[in-house]
Write a structure and sequence with these properties.
Length: about 650
């Protein structure tokens, strides 16, 4: 069964059980200031988990593209990847534990065909200090489900991961773990959650690949247990019961609705199906691995790490570029650059001939295009961008490596970094590390295009360290100088998702409509940046906007606020939205195939704004508090004006 089939079966199964299948959001989140990339299936759904009504109803399912930048360094083992797909289903205040656990178990056993004897599960052990009880309801349900398959499932207490290695499996199938393990929120365990963050207990599902796969690097011979890094068990799915929100005083209260957030790694479920804990053996990735074998004349087993890094990094770059991120030096762009440049080095290690990255990208596109037609549409853009980045880096790579060797030979001072400073290492350490100076690392970056992480990686291979703190300082200075010259890069972003920011964001829609009414349809958004204090908005217009016009725009916004009226959301295909001239959108390219249109209708029945957006907004225009005031209008760059406005 291919990865593509497992995905389709899941979506069909959830559809059959009343879920609306929604398209994956982009890897670069719209209007989510908390993160550079979409890293889980629930991230784009936060407003709905918090109570906003989703236009597709209360049961949703999808396969969400995810990118976890933090995992770049982990890639190389048998299960970490930067890009992955997360199969997800959600109850927005509808069904809860019983339905969820039955559905997901049925899917894994009857649809995918996994052996129930190899399935183990975990549940939340409760936390007295938070007043949240242990999850006996989930335990009862799991017992029932296993019994139906002929297993008496015993529940045992583990608590912490460390304790698990001491007490072992105890013949159990259902395991109680503490909040560090069985509680999910975007920021992890309860004490790490900021006020206003949502989360809850979860129940994870593990697949047992057999004790022959167990490795216990830290705990010696002690017994493996499911929710640990044992290597024997792989987490293949997680049902989170999101029903809590953290308060400013640190306590937890219940959300107005009880939600389910299920996420399951597609590649991991497929690995369980293949019976190998190595996700790179799943066809979705194996197609690329095989292609690298052909190009290099080497076997996957000859150099697992290099094969995995190239495969993962090319796939990640393909999906990021498809979502509009091109290799570059800042923000998301930098990650695409890092992925591709690191992949070049490992391709050299395997003797993959130069200039073949585009082919590897083709292999990814072909594997995925049935489910992600955008990849096919953008085939040329993707392969060209990847080929260009490979070529560009290859121009400086060889001389950069020579320079690197020269630097390494010159290093003679035994040193180490302490609190950001380079000091002579006087300790008797088993390995004496030597440091590459900040200036050298900076030159490798500016002259030879070596991302700092790559320099650090090569340094480690040579037993050296890099003066990172000093490098970061040089980079800061460098950025400050180049900012002064160049036009400031601008991403439509909100500083956070506080109430004031949401109100200002909603007012921004009205302001754009007002500007278009006064100045004409050529006005579009060129950038937006909103904090709790003010909005800052760039728009396409060639000349100064006079104060009397700004006054009229203010009046337009304020009368809409005063009048009030509902803000409704429609989902529609991008094509039909583009064909509808009443809908405003500034960056068609950046939107997925299915888009959300926000319409603000006054109580007088008139439409005050109709615009494509990703949210979040107030639910009524009247919820915007204060008087809208434009405090500044100025030039931003050629053909672009900038407004600063507040709610007073
Ligand atoms: N949000 C949970 C996770 O990322 C389940 O979707 O694991």
């Amino acid at each position: 069964m291919s990865g593509n089939e497992i995905r389709e079966k899941y979506l069909k199964f959830m559809e059959k059980n009343g879920h609306a299948v929604i398209p994956s959001s982009a890897l670069v989140p719209e209007n989510d200031p908390t993160t550079l990339f979409t890293g889980s299936g629930m991230q784009p759904l936060i407003p709905y988990l918090m109570g906003e009504k989703h236009p597709k109803g209360v049961r949703l399912a999808d396969s969400q593209k995810c990118f976890r930048a933090n995992d770049i360094e982990e890639v190389g083992d048998n299960r970490h990847t930067t890009f992955f797909e997360m199969l997800g289903n959600w109850s927005l205040g509808d069904y809860f534990k019983k339905e969820q656990l039955r559905w997901i178990f049925t899917y894994l056993i009857d649809e995918v065909g996994l052996d129930p004897a190899r399935i183990y599960v975990s549940v939340f052990a409760g936390d007295e200090s938070l007043g949240i009880p242990k999850d006996e309801e989930a335990v009862a349900m799991w017992k029932e489900l296993f019994l139906e398959r002929g297993f008496e499932a015993k529940d045992v207490f583990i608590g912490s991961e460390e304790n698990g290695y001491k007490v072992g499996m105890q013949g159990g199938r259902i395991f109680y773990y503490d909040a560090a393990k069985n509680w999910w929120s975007r920021s992890g365990k309860p004490e790490n959650m900021p006020a206003g963050e949502i989360g809850g207990p979860d129940s994870e599902i593990f697949y047992d690949f057999g004790p022959e796969h167990a490795t216990h690097p830290i705990f010696g011979k002690q017994e493996a247990h499911p929710n640990s890094d044992s290597g024997q068990f792989l987490e293949i799915g997680n049902s989170v019961f999101i029903e809590y929100i953290k308060q400013a005083d640190g306590s937890f209260t219940k959300l107005p609705q009880r939600n389910v957030d299920f996420g399951g790694g597609l590649e991991r479920i497929a690995a369980a199906k293949v019976g190998s804990p190595d996700v790179f053996k799943v066809d979705l990735l194996l197609n690329v691995v095989t292609h690298i074998e052909k190009l290099s004349g080497k076997k996957y087993e000859d150099d697992l790490i290099a094969f995995r890094i190239i495969t993962d990094h090319i796939r990640g770059a393909v999906f990021l570029i498809a979502d509009g991120v091109l290799p570059g030096n800042t923000d998301q762009d930098y990650f695409v650059r890092r992925l591709l440049r690191r992949a070049v080095r490992f391709a050299d290690r395997l003797s993959v001939p130069a200039g073949r990255f585009a082919e590897l990208a083709e292999a990814v596109i072909t594997t995925y295009s049935a489910h992600y037609p955008t990849l096919e549409d953008k085939r040329a853009i993707i392969t060209e961008a990847i080929a260009r980045e490979e070529e560009q880096f290859r121009k400086t790579l060889e001389s950069g490596l020579k320079q690197f060797n020269k630097i390494s030979l010159q290093i003679h001072v035994e040193s180490k970094e302490v609190d950001g400073k380079r000091v002579i290492n006087k300790e008797i350490a088993p390995v004496t590390k030597k440091a590459i100076s900040a200036q050298n690392a900076f030159d490798l970056y500016t002259t030879y295009g070596f991302p700092i992480e790559l320099t650090e990686e090569i340094a480690t291979e040579k037993g050296l360290i890099v003066e990172r703190a000093g490098f970061d300082k040089l980079m800061e200075e460098h950025k400050a100088t180049s900012r002064a010259g160049a036009e400031q890069k601008f991403k439509g972003g909100l500083a956070d998702s506080s109430e004031k920011v949401i109100e200002l964001h909603t007012a921004t829609h009205l302001m754009l409509a007002g500007l278009q009414k006064e100045l004409g349809g050529h006005i579009h958004q060129a950038g937006s940046n909103i904090t709790a204090e003010r909005l800052r908005y760039d728009f396409t217009h060639g000349e100064k906007v006079e104060r009397d016009i700004l006054d009229r725009v203010e009046t337009y916004v304020n009368s809409a606020i005063k009048l009030g009226g509902p803000i409704t959301i429609e989902m529609m295909s991008k094509d039909s939205a583009q064909a509808d001239s009443t809908i405003e959108a500034s960056f068609w390219d950046r939107y997925p195939d299915e888009v959300k249109v926000y319409t603000m209708t006054g109580t007088d029945g008139k439409v005050y704004s109709r615009e494509l957006c990703g949210g979040p907004h107030t639910s009524d225009m009247g919820d915007i508090k204060g008087t809208f005031k434009i405090i500044k209008e100025e030039s931003s760059s050629a053909g672009v004006r900038r407004i600063k406005a507040i709610l007073e």
